[in-house]
Write a structure and sequence with these properties.
3 helices, single chain, elongated, 44% strand, 10 strands
Length: 165
Amino acid sequence: MPNYLDDIRQGLYSWIMKELKITTLFAEQYKIRPQKTPYAVIRTSVITAYGLMDESAEVDNDGLAEIDGHRRMSVNIEVIGQGSNEKTLQLQASLSKVNVLGELWNVYGIAILDKGDITNITELLETEGLERASLDIRIGYAVQYIENQGLIEKVELNGVQIPEA
């Protein structure tokens, strides 16, 4: 099964770097935050499967079927530092650009489902204010995997094997 999450993370990273041209990192990296601001932090979180079941194709001669599924993911992008509110507005607006949407879909398989909300989360940090803003978006993507569904080896009807052995 391909690593869809790596592709998604790379696509989000590329989009933010191209639009904002600021240092961008992932919340799970456990690295020291940059001293130079502004910078962006990407957090991928809740993944939801659409529907009751993924869709199965026909089983091949080896008993294998290709399964297709659709997923949704919540993504939070936090921009920290001077101008963070404007930068999150810029990111949100960029999700209406045909070339941005085209690259996210054609290169990384990411569909934008919701351009989300911007929240001003500016706070007092020790003795100085720290400007921060957060953008929550919802994305969609497809997954494919192979399932061994097996083969029917024999059929019996009223105790008689069909075709008879």
